[in-house]
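=== RUN LOG ===
request id: a7f3
mode: sequence -> structure
chains: 1
length: 319
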Amino acid sequence: MKIVIVGAGALGRLFGALLAKGGEDVWFVELDREVVAAINEKGIGVTVHENVAPEKIDYYPARATDSGGSIAACDLLVMAVKSYHVYEAILGVAHLVTDASPVVALLNGLGHLEVMGRVVERKNIIAGFTNMAATALGPGLVVNDGAGKTKIGEYDGTISPRLQKISGMLNKCAIETEPVQDIISRMWCKVIVHAAINSVSAVVRQRNGHLIEGLESISLLKRLVDEGEEIADACGIVLGTTDLYAMLLATCRRTFNHLSPMLQDIINQRKTEVDALNGILYRYGKRNGVAADTHQTMFELIKIMEMSYGMVDEKEERF
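=== RESULT ===
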């Protein structure tokens, strides 16, 4: 199967490596030409430790381009860009998205499905998320920080033949995947938990596991989760029986030594995805009469940190 991964960041690289290892034909669309050159030269390098010796890095074959227009057709797309790049990213590969080659959206946060649906037909978008953890190193290199399940689902809640086919292919490639009927509800659960972990870890500059070692950080995480649940309820989202506190603790333990994506962005002085996490939760809360003061505070703190290294976007939505 020819698979186009849009975005060669940490998650895209890890997925690409596993797909290539499983025998799939992997192509990347990535704007960073240094990353494109590295992948075309050596493939994707994967390690399980940040300080591993070069001879212990495993490489998997893949091809990369900085223009989606150079690819004529494929069997499947995986959208793995940062949430704030999704509009430009889907525009660049819109010609590839068809009934026969749907796009699986594995972005952080909320709101991206609606953005993608303005460019391609919604029926050709498969919603999803993954709990796999990865850290990008140099161009084309990635640390596999921990296994985790991937969930994918159709908008209409059906377990369609194509969903089963894609899930089977991903599982064959050691990407543990489950097709689900309630993907939107599960996405909200993940966003509530990860908005808490990402923002707190970024502000205190601690790895995920250390966040559950102190009463103060646990209390802050709990307030963020409580607010998230209240916002979901006000938006008519049924979260089901998922225990979000247990999910948060399990995530921090499973990825104990992992630097959250938001912390990685702060360390590398890049724009974060706080708008699609704490920002959008606060925005939804405000529209539905829920005071989400803790999420607003975390959003503002992250934005202040971004401003400290000159990361200001005049087009960003403000409250």
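=== NOTES ===
The domain at 184-308 is CATH 1.10.1040.10 (N-(1-d-carboxylethyl)-l-norvaline Dehydrogenase; domain 2).
Residues 314-319 have pLDDT under 50 and may be disordered.
=== END ===
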